[in-house]
Amino acid sequence: MSEDLRTQLERLREDAQMRLAAVADAAAVEALRIALLGRSGELTALLHELGSVDANDRAAIGQLANAVHTEVETAIRDRLASLHTAALDERLAAETLDMSAPGRPVRIGHLHPTMTVERDLREIFHAFGFEVFEGPEIETEAMNFEALNIPPDHPSRDLWDTLYVAEPGSDPPRPAEDGTILRTHTSPVQIRAMQALPLPIRVIMPGRCFRYEAVDASHNFEFFQVEGLVVDERTSLADLKGMLEEFARALYGRDTRTRFRPGYYPFTEPSVAFDVSCLVCGGPGCPACGRTGWMTILGAGMVHPSVLRAGGIDPDRYQGYAFGMGLDRIALLRHGIPDLRLLMSADLRFLEQFPGGR
Ligand SMILES: [Zn+2]
């Protein structure tokens, strides 16, 4: 009986090594581990028989059983490790990385032509000492109109076809009772700048504006403006003129000729329109400039006293000038783009023609 158990243990010891060598993967090793060492495994069954071994032999056979158990456990662990290494080697051999293969180009976006213009203007005005100040796209009628010297019944309100935010729950929708609108120009930001900033003020205010417009080649319901505002104790129309002339040369080149014409805006007095020599023909006249040789690029003027007052500034002590221009129009002129709608088309075939800045 004792001899038998010893023989069986020795045989299992050899068997286990051979069977382990024969298995090909981790799952098969696990199956073998259960077959040998599991609760009803072969070695476990032999260990149960130790109790019936003759007392004289029990210590020696017990020692042998323990040794076999440890050996089998170790052999299983080693076999798993070598299978893992082999699998890894195989993967490394199969998944080689060819460092000499040409890379795939990464598509990096670029600025929209209108935004490139905005960046350029920020840079030019930064050099003139202007800071950037931004305001909300959703405004109140009071800020968008009244504070800018445009009272409710003023005929000039017709110049700004307004998109109203609807009163919550109204059906059919009617304009919100608190006068919430989408701003029709960046001018309300002038009021916000005057209310927020210490004097003197020297800011540009870029941003998106909205109007209820029939969309065509030169009108859109959504567009971009940049507005400028300077408020100081000694600010004059001459300062405005000099600054705009320098601006036009910085944007369009040293040879650009400029002129001022009388203009009309409710929020400036006096008001001027600012023209540059035609960017297409340079002066003789062409279809792009209506054969005048000039192109109007912005409107400007001295800030109206009631606008200064709305901004909390004493018009008897301070004067200011303001100017505003359409970014989209500058982009169209710069690139000879014939239709404003292309700028909002989100069509990559169009946009990729204007790599611009990043
Ligand atoms: Zn022209």
Briefly, what is this?
This protein is of the alpha+beta class and 358 residues long.
Given as residue ranges, the uncertain stretches (5+ residues, pLDDT < 50) are: none
Main sheet: which strands, in order across?
1-4-5-9-8-7-6
User: Care to count the β-strands?
Assistant: 9
Please trace the helix and strand order, writing H or E for each element.
HHHHHEEHEHEEHEEEHEHH
State which percent range the strand residues make up. 15-25%
Tell me the distance between the termini.
Answer: 88 Å
Ligands bound to this protein structure: zinc ion
Radius of gyration: 42 Å
The structural class is alpha+beta
- Alpha plus pi helix count: 11
Indicate the mean pLDDT.
90
Shape: elongated
Secondary structure: helix percent:
25-40%
Largest sheet: 7 strands, mixed
Q: What labels describe this entry?
A:
358 residues, alpha+beta, two-stranded antiparallel ribbon, 40% helix, 18% strand, binds zinc ion
Describe, in plain words, how this protein is organized in 3D.
The chain is built from eleven helices and nine strands. It has 358 residues and is α+β, with helices and mostly antiparallel strands. Strands 1-4-5-9-8-7-6 form a seven-stranded mixed beta sheet, with helices on both faces. A hairpin with a 2-residue loop joins strand 6 and strand 7.
Helix and strand arrangement:
Elements: H1 2-22, H2 26-37, H3 42-48, H4 55-94, H5 113-127, E1 131-132, E2 138-140, H6 141-144, E3 180-182, H7 188-196, E4 201-210, E5 222-232, H8 237-252, E6 258-265, E7 268-277, E8 294-303, H9 305-310, E9 319-326, H10 327-335, H11 348-351
Parallel strand pairs: 1-4
Antiparallel strand pairs: 2-3, 4-5, 5-9, 6-7, 7-8, 8-9
Helix pairs in contact: 1-4, 2-4, 5-10
The structure holds zinc ion.
Residues 278, 280-281, 285-286, 288-289, 293 line the site of zinc ion.
